[in-house]
Design a protein that fits this description.
This protein is mostly beta strands. The chain has one helix and six strands, in the order βββαβββ. Helix content is about 10%, strand content about 40%. The protein has a single domain, classed as 2-Layer Sandwich (Folate-binding fold), CATH 3.30.2270.
Length: about 90
């Protein structure tokens, strides 16, 4: 089991969190339908480091961006989600 460090609660087990999506799958409000479809359905699925959005559902309920290596599950950074965190 992985351990995440919540920016608000500190280190916690993965069981307290729910995965939402990768950061590159967030569609901006002014995107055209074609851009939205491309962002949602033709994304990369990289091996290696990627930014993911998770929610501390069974804790403080905050959203956060976790930088995780998809091969090794190593977590290199965690930050709270705010207006500056998403594209």
């Amino acid at each position: 089991m992985m351990q995440f460090t919540c920016p608000h609660c500190g280190p916690r087990d993965q069981a307290e969190f729910i995965y939402e999506r990768t950061v590159d799958a967030v569609v901006s409000l002014d995107a055209t339908p074609e851009e939205a479809m491309k962002s949602l359905f033709t994304r990369n699925n990289p091996r290696g480091v990627d930014e993911e959005i998770w929610r501390h559902t069974y804790g403080c309920r905050a959203w956060m961006v976790i930088v995780r290596n998809r091969v090794t599950n190593e977590i290199s950074a965690t930050r709270a989600v705010g207006p500056e965190a998403l594209p």
